UniProtKB/TrEMBL annotation:
Cross-referenced Pfam families: Acetyltransf_5
InterPro entries: Acyl_CoA_acyltransferase, PEP-CTERM/exosrtase_acylTfrase
Protein name (database record): PEP-CTERM/exosortase system-associated acyltransferase
Amino acid sequence: MSLSSICKSDPNRRLIDTFFDYFEIVPVNTTKLLETVHHLRYQVYCVETGFEDPNLYRHQLEKDEFDPYSVYSLLRHRRTGIYAGTVRLILPRTDTEKCFPIHKVTNHPLFLNHHKFPRTAVGAVSRFAISKHFRKRLGEFSSPTGMSQQERSTHRLEERRIIPHLMLGLVAGLVSMSVKQGIEHWFCMVEPSLLRLLSRYGLQLIPCGPMIDHHGKRQPCYAHLSKFLETAYTEQPAIWELITDEGRNHPLETTRRYKSQVS
C-alpha cells in the first residue's frame, strides 16, 4: 500500500497530520499504563500468536526478565481509546556484558563490539506488537453513534487505510524513547516480512549474521539511529516527519535542512 492511499480522501494532507487524527503515541509512565502494556503483550504473544504459553501468566500479563530495564510506548486509537500496539526499548546495563535478548540467540561478535557500539548508547528493540484483535474491536465500535450511514462508512474506510501504518507509530515511539534515553544504536531480531516492509518505507535495519530460529525465522539486525533517520529523510521524507515528530527527535543538522525547506 502506498503512502498516498492513506490520504486518498485529501491528497494534499500530510501523512503526519492524518496519522495523528487517528492515533496517539503514549509514553508509559504510570503503573496502570505499564499493566496495559503487559496485558496487550499477553493478547499478542500468548493468545494471537501462541509464541508464549498463556498458562504461565495467570493474570494475563506477559512479562520477562528484561522488563525491569526497559521503557515502553503504547499506540492509542483516539476515537475508541483502544490500545492497538506497544513496543519496548531495553536499556543497557553495566553489570553484565550480555544484557539483551539477542545475546541469548546469537554469538556474532559484532553484538559485543563495544568500539562500534558503546555499551551505554545501545538499546534493544523488543516486543514490537500490534494486536490483530484491534481490527475486530474497531469494527465493534463502528456501531451507530448518531452519524449517518454515509459518515460511518467514510470513517471506517479512512481508518482501514491508516491501520497498516500502525507500525510507523511504534517506530516513532522508539525514536522518541531513544532520544530521551541517549540511545544511539539499536539491536533487534526481525521477521523477514517486517524487514522488507520497513525497507519499503525507507527504514533500513542492517542484517548481521545468519537467520536464527526464534519463534520462527528471525534476522539479527542493528541500526545506527542517526543513519537510520537520515536514510528515511532522504528516501521517504513524509515518514521521516512522522517518526521524528517533524524533526524534534532527530540530530540538529537534518532538522535544520528540513525547516529550511518548509519555511
